Structure formats: C-alpha cells, structure tokens
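Let's practice the habit of predicting before peeking. Look at the sequence and jot down your guess about where helices and strands might fall. Then scroll down.
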Amino acid sequence: MREFKIAVVAGDGIGPEVTESAVTILQRVADKCEFSLKFTDYKAGGCSIDEFGVPLTQEAIDGCKASDAVLLGAVGGPKWDSVDSSLRPERALLGLRASLGLYSNLRPALMFPQLAGASPVKGLTEMDILIVRELTGGIYFGKHGRSVQEDLLSDGNRKGVTAFDTEEYSEGEIRRILEQGFRYAMGRRKKLTVVDKANVLETSRLWREIANEMAPSYPEVELDFLYVDNCSMQLINRPSSFDVIVTSNMFGDILSDEAGMITGSIGMLPSASLGKPGTPGMYEPVHGSAPDIAGTGKANPIAAILSASMLLRWSLGMQQASDMIENAVRSALSDGFRTADISGIDKNAAIREVSTSKMTAAIAERI
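Done guessing? Here is the structure:
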C-alpha cells in the first residue's frame, strides 16, 4: 500500500475546523482507494506567534518540506493586528511559499449549478475560470519600508512619514508563470487572458512583451490582454467568457476573490500553490480565518475539502480519489445540504441548513 506524508497546518479562526473536515474526507477516500496517508500537524500564523513568538518556525518549514503535500487552513485575525508587521500571521504564508518555492497559485472559480441562485450576477448559470496567480514576486515581496521626509504638511508639521512598497519582476519569474498559464489553457478551452496595468507600470509592459514573445509556441491558444481595472468590470459583465487568467501576485489576489464571490460564496473556493515538479504543493481554501464564526459550526468546509481534492490530483496523482470527492460534493449539494453561507439561495423545502460537521458527514457518506 502506498503511503503519503501530509503536513497539516490548520492555522487560526475557522482554519482548524475546515481542515479537520478535509482530513476526514481525505482519510475516507484513502480507505476506499487503498492508499495510506500519514498526517503531521504544524503550527503557523497567529497560533504560532502565541506559542513560539514567531508566525513560522523552522521546524514547521522543515516538516512541510519533508512532506508530499501541505494542507493549510487559514491564518490571521484581529487578535494579532497590533503586532509588528514582520511578525504578522500572514508572514507565515509568505514564508511557506518562499521556502517551498511555490510560485504558481491556481484558483479555480467554478459555478455549481445547484448554487447558481447565489451569484450576485443575475441570470448567470455557467462559469468556469482558472486564475493563475504569480506567487513569490511583485509588490508583496519587493522592498518596503518607511522614511521621514522634511515636507511641509497641511498641519504645519515639517516632519512627515513616507511609506513605500516596490513592485519588481524579473524576466525569469514572468516567463515561468506565463508558461503555466499557456499550459493550463491548452488543457482547457484554449483561451488565455493576461491581466496587467501596462498603461502605467513598467513591470506590466515587460509581462506583455514576454507573453507576445511566447505566444507563437502555443498557436492554438487565443491570447488577449486586459488592464486590471477593466478585467474587474468584465468579470461582472461577462464572467462566462473567461477561461484562464494569468496575472501578478497582487492583481491575482484581488481578482480571485472577486471571481469567487461571483460563484455565490467564497466558502466554496479551493486553491493550490505549486512549484517545480517533485516539490510539495500547498493546498488551502481561498477564504480567510473568519474569527467571527470560529467555533460556531457555521463554517463552510467545502473549499477546504475541494482543496484536498486538488491535493490528491496535483501532488499525489490520485485522480480517481480526487474525482470521488468532487462527485460527493456535487451529490451533497444536489440533495439539499447547505451551510449557513449558502442556505438562503433556494426556497425549496428540501434545502437543509447544516453545521460544518454535518456537511462534512454528508459528503463523506457519498464517497
């Protein structure tokens, strides 16, 4: 029997709840498909700050590196808003991505027919977008800081603070993420949209130059470009026309959340962060830690469960097991099971609002 090592980084807020659900489902399909999973827990984010004084320990990094894949919940919350910026819980995510060499973030935004009524876009019944977000470059990883400027302020105080964050991309960083975008487009509907701000940013102009240079190698792929502000509008206006979107770190962060809400609930959206072949990928729901509902049983576990499905498909090569999870999710939704975030969509009497654990059980029973 094949055995795989999974590092579990549950994190903060609802992270432990939805991660527990994902582990339950993973164990269920492993038993059905006769392979073995060994789970090891590591702390990162706010809980790591509380226990170790830092958002990410070397032990957690080493443990994740030694695993076949990493399953992550969510990190952060207002409890840690006052800590130094270098110690914010979110630094754990950046640290893990950098340490594992995860440069490609895949965020599918898929409309489940059962939840079409939840979309804020009226009449939308079909949407299947894959957002490929560059993950280790750009403004999040550029030089940043503050300085005191001797500028005359409106209040007459001659000392003012200037803050700066630098957007920077190398040709190599851009080329490798565009290769991912073209490759995924080839396996889907063969349309790739590069999203940038080339009318303002020099980094975006370099993205366009490299994309146009690479395009002849993928003659079947229809390539187009959109400014990020226009893309944010077109996602509302014509979401079903998009196939694969590839973009920079910050733009991808923002657009994937927008695309997620168009599907009806961010609680439904998984993601995968991948690096070079042979390195462990990291899988996490797109939603945050939602501390306001932590412990209430209202969290939607489906995004974490679908992230586990992506883990099986992309890191472990267990396609059948991945399909089993996705089919079980669809079946549970078709049978009327809903968590609080998606329960108000239909007036059908068959709809049942259930807790996190009961939704997990409903999916497990259908595997």
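How did you do? The mean pLDDT is 93.
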